[in-house]
């Protein structure tokens, strides 16, 4: 475990293990640190808005073994309330040794820790869908969903984000997507009981499954919740430079939306509510 962040002493504490599956752009890393640190800052802001306020404590492990990372042991999750898997340049449908090892760890934790919360962003969303038998593959058109994006909410999404609006906005950066959600049948009886509901909370024109929700167990988002303007532009440029994004006009248009406001804090607040109920007086559960 690389870092631990100390919450406000008087606040209830939520402890999350961040499994880092990628590194940010070098300039972002020098300014804001790794994705674990960036997510800590983001969730700490959401925790301060909780009723009552929550402290958020995060440890992080970089898990890409072919880049010097490691897969943690099950024992290292003792004392944690949940885990979060970050975005990545890798394919969640791939069979890299570290991806298969991570899936084995996640399966073990899922079976042995029924109290645990499983959170996923982008790659993490896709990997958790795969864990439960959902299908992940590139978009049929092979195009990317990039930049500031409107996500239409299902009734489940409206309830999760405590809004009467039909949509939220988040930053996107993906070509792969979940094309069929998990079910109790696809997951198997060891993973999901037959009465478990796996719900989709939103969709966009590009991607039909923008996030998954299992009550008291799992919440994922295809879009990124903690990206700022510089991060959006830099992450797009990294994928252009690597040859991943070939449509340069699309990339430029997406970069021009990097400064637009998004609802990432609202998503983080919704995630924290899966750990501790937030009595904000809105009348929305």
TrEMBL record:
Source taxon at top rank: Eukaryota
InterPro entries linked: ChyE-like, Class_I_gatase-like, GATASE
SUPFAM superfamilies in the cross-refs: Class I glutamine amidotransferase-like
Coiled-coil stretches: none
Limits of the Glutamine amidotransferase domain: 78-224
Pfam family, one: GATase
Protein name: Class I glutamine amidotransferase-like protein
